[in-house]
Write a sequence for this structure.
């Protein structure tokens, strides 16, 4: 899955989702209303598009609102990196952190 594919999916299906104010878990929007304001997640996707990033594998089968495990295998073609990422998630507040596949140089 590429960031371009994720961005396209969001653009074509934004009306089916609603995002809580300030971000968080999306829910199904029964009103199917058009939204002109981009979701917070979309700015994150645009950021990783610059690195030519590709998600090769991802699984969150064992993740719930109470916590769980998320893992991914990510290829960064710009920087020639392969990352295997394991992330324990405790609730929806960690979602922004979970999708950050950048190295921390500090």
């Amino acid at each position: 899955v590429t960031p371009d594919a994720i961005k396209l999916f969001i653009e074509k299906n934004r009306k089916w989702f609603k995002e809580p104010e300030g971000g968080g878990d999306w829910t199904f929007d029964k009103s199917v209303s058009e939204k002109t304001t981009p979701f917070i997640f979309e700015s994150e996707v645009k950021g990783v598009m610059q690195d030519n990033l590709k998600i090769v594998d991802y699984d969150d089968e064992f993740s719930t609102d109470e916590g769980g495990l998320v893992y991914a295998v990510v290829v960064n073609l710009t920087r020639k990196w392969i990352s295997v990422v394991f992330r324990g998630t405790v609730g929806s507040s960690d979602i922004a952190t979970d999708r950050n596949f950048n190295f921390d140089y500090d």
Q: What stands out?
A: The first strand starts at residue 17 and ends at 18. The CA atoms of residues 19 and 37 lie 11 Å apart. The chain is about 25% helix and 35% strand. The mean pLDDT is 79.
